[in-house]
Amino acid sequence: MFGLMMDTPLTLAPLLERAARLFPKKEIASRYGSSVFRYTIRDFHARVHRLAHVVASLGIREGDRVGTLCWNSHRHLELYWAVPCLGAVLHPLNLRLADDQLAYIINHAGDRVIFADASLMPVLERLKGQIPCVERIIVLPDETYEGPELDYEAALAAAPDTRYSWPEIDERAAFGTCYTSGTTGNPKAVWYTHRGMYLHTMMLAQQDTFGICERDVIFQMVPMFHANGWGFPYAAVAMGSKLVLSGRSLQPAGIGSAIEQERVTFTFGVPTLWMQLLAYLDQHPTDISSLRCVLAAGSATPRALVEQYGEKYGLEFRLGWGMSETSPMATVMRFKSHMDDLPAKEKYDFRARHGLPAPGVELRILGDDGAEVPWDGATMGELQVRGPWITSGYYDDPRPAEQAAPESFQDGWFRTGDVATVDAEGYIQIMDRTKDLVKSGGEWISSVDLENAIMAHPKVMEAAVIAVPHPKWQERPLACVVPRPGETVTKEEILEHLSGRVAKWWLPDDVVVIDAVPKTSVGKFNKRALRARFSGT
Amino acid sequence: MFGLMMDTPLTLAPLLERAARLFPKKEIASRYGSSVFRYTIRDFHARVHRLAHVVASLGIREGDRVGTLCWNSHRHLELYWAVPCLGAVLHPLNLRLADDQLAYIINHAGDRVIFADASLMPVLERLKGQIPCVERIIVLPDETYEGPELDYEAALAAAPDTRYSWPEIDERAAFGTCYTSGTTGNPKAVWYTHRGMYLHTMMLAQQDTFGICERDVIFQMVPMFHANGWGFPYAAVAMGSKLVLSGRSLQPAGIGSAIEQERVTFTFGVPTLWMQLLAYLDQHPTDISSLRCVLAAGSATPRALVEQYGEKYGLEFRLGWGMSETSPMATVMRFKSHMDDLPAKEKYDFRARHGLPAPGVELRILGDDGAEVPWDGATMGELQVRGPWITSGYYDDPRPAEQAAPESFQDGWFRTGDVATVDAEGYIQIMDRTKDLVKSGGEWISSVDLENAIMAHPKVMEAAVIAVPHPKWQERPLACVVPRPGETVTKEEILEHLSGRVAKWWLPDDVVVIDAVPKTSVGKFNKRALRARFSGT
């Protein structure tokens, strides 16, 4: 029997309108180079409505795809909101992809128009002729742009200065799409729903996740093209936080100065970024005391990193886990109250885990036998998740999800491809990507665990462990180590450091010193590149 | 075009299972008399499943109504979860209603079974023969109960010790019903949905509302039969908070000792209760320092009360507003960050307002001309709301809501019957119930504003203002004043105190001193009773 509550759809437009109504004076700061553009949510809101008129005038209708090829900026934020609110599908393009991959995803999504930063127009020039679906390119100009394409600012200036009448949208409608950075085969399209992002936004505002709130100053340094910018471009506006957008720079000096100058209270990024920032902070004193906590996610975060930030800067890391297919935030590490009195060392044991499922997300870890693994913090299994912001299938495959992608779906659960443990408190720890595990003599070695142990060495900045083929054991670990600036480090030092820290049979067969760990387009360790270089696989 | 996220229904059972999985060791404390019963969420969860077996064995199917006539206890909490999770509709009966009203709502809802505290069995005895729909009564026993009815504990002990298999429930299904305490005509049935309460729960956990979280100790002293207990019996369990249930006592001494002994961090109640507690605390020093904030709602909260708690106890009041039809929380008062530096006096001006709409709720205030009133903090109009946990109609009326109850619905908005203002920051302030306004010479006088001004007098404990008929002005205000214990107060003192505080034409025509303001069944000022006594209307 149905209840009698209003059938209000969970869509994004009401969140935008709420922000404009309740928090019109809050600031949005958009950094570019050494300059900062500032305006208020009131101005932002007015421009989003103008932009909606522009997008509609280009013939974009509900369900049409609109690409963006942009750095983090206020204009990108305008697109982030205007395109979904008018019922179209936002497709933020990963500007670090290779040309053929970019062309593939533009064609696969069927982007009818693309909004591009002037500085990125050379990328689109190179794709000319390969993306026939694109009818129009609109350029977000810089000081020097003088191209032939429609100018974003000119279009906005010419648009009606009236409210765009947002259509009534089904909450299950797609509002955006991101492509997985798929390390094998073509990228796959995740199609996000209004309902999913609405619920994800409400979740990010909860006390036991990240508590995003009006008094926050949120620094968006994760690229907005990476998995919805982790959801914070929506949460920050919806909750009336001040939002600081990073521009194109992700250098440690720029990050440090943004935190210091804007009095940032919360930010988030991949571990490699936090490593680089730590090295920078050690040499360039910077006031980061305004941060109330930060989120590290996207790949494994070394415990040593969490500990160093804690010890040196009193900064609380809140690790989390997610992926493009999970909108992306699915777990977050928070202490339970009964753990308050644990010794500091034990606390760091927990701080380096990936936490509990966010309210709304369910997870399970299945062992080889198909049963849930014991909650012992040791037994590894495949992490599976479900919930209203977890993908149910990939776009453009007519088969049911579990037939089309049995490697990704099982009994209504999404198979993450991550291997994890769960401890007695229910905290999960991601041990590895299935494909990055070292399978040695029928047992698994977690490359992530080994990396963490190595990165605890004071002379080491970064370390990546890959599997190399072995005639007897099938695979054995190889450690690739990057010393801190000005330091040198030897194989013997690393192996000695590891003795006693990991099981003897986990010790790498070899240690090579390299200049830098190659990174993927979103800043994660690119182990595929390392394997190509060192193991020939 | 639909997106591709999982179609996970927003229902209550997953929240229960999450709590049992992640927070099994958290305590639930149920007070009765001077004793406390304690168990863990693990035990609670096991008993909820047993209870579900019991309820199903009584022939209760999805959509059937199950009444409860209970004080706040762990058993009532078990019913709160078991009944909705198995798809039936929980109907908590207001045990303070008159017999004829109780019989009316039991029959109107069609309750098939009723779970009743042994101490409340005399109420049901009196209704014998008047509630033919009720097939079975189950008694929650006390030490002395020896009646003929099925014993709750015996039934649980005999039930299978296995998990009940929760059905898949449509998120729009009814999970519960509460009746408005309708001061005119028969009570009306609000039918709550799983979806609405799920979203309400997620809202209560947000940083900018009440931030309900795992480390909270929530004291449930609002009766659980009152508007879903304001939603906290769901939010506390879902977030893994420790929950303290008040038993039947709502005396200030019991409240004070519960806060002190259990180290309560958050609680909530109607203003009259806070007034009584303040008088108690002034004479019985009690450690309430564990409270991080409290919520006052349900009727107008005098500014003087908020100020006294702040000044004397450093306690932050977070006023809110809601009603049975809004599940119930719809607004909450939080400072915006730019207001941090306001002088203390001005801060209290804001603290005594009812705040901003909670994320998910939209509101508007319409003047006589049908347009939104200006945001000037002065112009009064009718408050209207909409959102996924706002009622769309009342049960058992076949006509569309706006035809069946035009006084309650307009263009998809719920008409609250409250008169409010909104200030330049968007904070609303409830000025009065429409029917409690004093209509004097074509102008409105807010009875609530007058009461607040009177209650700021140091000798006054409570004050209620009602309209009395006037031959020339149509209506004029009459003030009914209750002095603090041991104090006396005169008409002249009150009028002198009001001079300069309110407009001259607002001054009451008369002031009468009474022993106590009569209260409704949920502890609000009963102005109907006062009008019957003093104005003959």
Q: Describe it for me?
A:
The structure is a homodimer of 537-residue chains. Chain A has 537 residues and is of the alpha/beta class. Chain A has three domains: 30-169 and 205-246, Rossmann fold (3-Layer(aba) Sandwich); 250-434, ANL, N-terminal domain (Rossmann fold); 437-534, GMP Synthetase, Chain A, domain 3. In chain A, strands 2-1-11-10-12-13-14-15-16 form a nine-stranded mixed beta sheet, sandwiched between helices. In chain A, helix 7 crosses helix 8 (232-239). The mean pLDDT of chain A is 93. Chains A and B meet through helix 1, strand 9, helix 7 and strand 16 of A and helix 1, strand 9, helix 7 and strand 16 of B.
Largest β sheet strand count, sense and barrel closure of chain A? 9 strands, mixed
Overall 3D shape of chain A: globular
CATH C-level category of the largest domain in chain A: Alpha Beta
Round the Cα radius of gyration of chain A to an integer and report it: 23 Å
In terms of quaternary structure, the protein is homodimer
Number of domains of chain A: 3
Category by helix and strand content of chain A: alpha/beta
Quick gist of this model?
Two copies of one chain form a homodimer. Chain A is of the alpha/beta class and 537 residues long.
Keywords:
Rossmann fold; homodimer; 16 helices; 5-stranded parallel beta sheet; 9-stranded mixed beta sheet; GMP Synthetase, Chain A, domain 3; 537 residues; 3 domains; alpha/beta
Which helices and strands appear, and what pairs or packs with what?
2 copies of one chain form a homodimer.
Chain A: H1 13-22, E1 27-32, E2 35-40, H2 41-57, E3 65-69, H3 74-85, E4 89-92, H4 99-109, E5 111-117, H5 121-127, E6 136-140, E7 150-151, H6 152-158, E8 174-179, E9 189-193, H7 194-204, E10 217-220, H8 232-239, E11 242-245, H9 252-262, E12 266-269, H10 271-283, E13 293-296, H11 303-313, E14 317-322, E15 329-332, H12 344-351, E16 356-357, E17 362-366, E18 381-386, H13 401-404, E19 409-410, E20 413-422, E21 428-433, E22 438-440, E23 443-445, H14 447-455, E24 460-470, E25 474-483, H15 491-498, E26 510-513, H16 527-534
Parallel strand pairs in A: 1-11, 3-4, 3-5, 5-6, 6-7, 10-11, 10-12, 12-13, 13-14, 25-26
Antiparallel strand pairs in A: 1-2, 8-9, 14-15, 15-16, 17-18, 18-20, 19-20, 20-21, 22-23, 24-25
